[in-house]
Design a protein that fits this description.
With 466 residues, this protein is mainly alpha-helical. It is built from 20 helices and six strands. The structure holds arginine. The site of arginine has 9 residues, from helix 7.
Length: 466
Amino acid sequence: MNKLSEKPWSGRFAGSTEKLMEKFNASIGFDKRLYKMDIEGSRAQTRALARMGILTKQERERVLAGLNRVEREIDAGALPLTDDLEDIHMAVEKRLIELVGDAGAKIHTGRSRNDQVALDERLFLREAIADAIAQIERVMAVVLDVAESHLDVIMPGYTHVQQAQPIRFSHYAMALFWMLARDRTRFEDCWKRANAMPLGAGALAGSAYPLDREFLRAELGFDRIAENSIDAVSDRDYFLEYLSAAAILMGHLSRFCEDLIVWSSSEFGFVELADAFSTGSSMMPQKKNPDSLELVRGKTGRVYGNLMSLLTVMKAIPLTYAKDMQEDKEPVFDTADTVHISLSVFAGAWQSMKINGKRMADALDSAILATDLADYLARKGVPFRMCHRIVGKLVRTALARGQKLHALDMETLRAASEAFDTDVRAVLSPEASTEARNLDGGTGRNAVLRQIEAGRHLLTDGKACG
Ligand code: ARG
């Protein structure tokens, strides 16, 4: 065999491929990751062809045994996957033909690499989504435990990185829980739309053989059949949705990383990451750096990049397939790996970090109760807009005198508003402030307990896909 005749499509060609072009064109360097999905698809295709009489029963068995052997060889790293093979689809088929001869050469009947790759990708995606969901659920479980065991830790809540109102640390943790809960549903949603079986689409117009698509659907565990052959080979929105869900997820993680990184500085000292999730400096002996969280924050950038990369690749590609679309795989593989490791590290860091409730309580600025003071006046019948101004002036007075807001004497308070009475002292504590907020979704102790309970419920009953 000369070099040229080795390519399955070489019949139409008189000249051979330039080495440089071969390297440029090859996707096998990365799509080999799809070999199990590709072989799975070929098994279903083989059975479908046998049902139509295109393969005899004996041929079917030989091909299935051959596919098993190809899989074992790739498992063992025993099959060289070189650029001249072009992609994983042709590599598997070529080796199959070497092993079983003509029967193997029949399996591409009524199939194109265009529907084949769309199938392999969807099979891969189902695994990637299931993995992301499992990892998200692990983080959710860790966050619930941390929230439950730190219910009485009260800390400053921030807006604009300025102390705003006291909150329970558990309430903060549960904010992450609910964001993750929505991330989970985004992946589940993506699964629903991706779970359509493309085989039978052929190159673009539909296979000229009466392939039993319902049989193929059931064999490969899809919910439904892709409705339109042109759509089935043209779109990659299943990948785009996955990348979007991953980008939003990473964006969520990055914000919690940022908080904890700042909070683990000596200035804050609110939390301390475990040694197991920190690293040191090569020069400064005292350093213990929150690299785990910094890296999760940093990897958010590459996941955003992967989404932008595929959105850009897909833009304005004329229907149906064009080779541009071969560029779809690496951003998705990279995202799957990045999401997996980021969620695992994030879970580990949360599970093992120390929460320093005393530092959090000590950090509470007395002016953080200003809203409670205004609410006190409002409850006495003063219109809230006026309360706001009165308390604003009191904050200024306290600052000018170098006093804490709660230390202002009764005389000063009453000079600001007649409505102040001795019962004002009762509202001027962080505990009282949080306890005033026991409505659903608030930071009061019971309200947070109800959230945690609802969270446990969601985590145990919430159906993931599979
Ligand atoms: N390696 C190709 C890809 O990943 C497979 C599909 C090739 N189809 C084609 N018509 N050349 O997109």
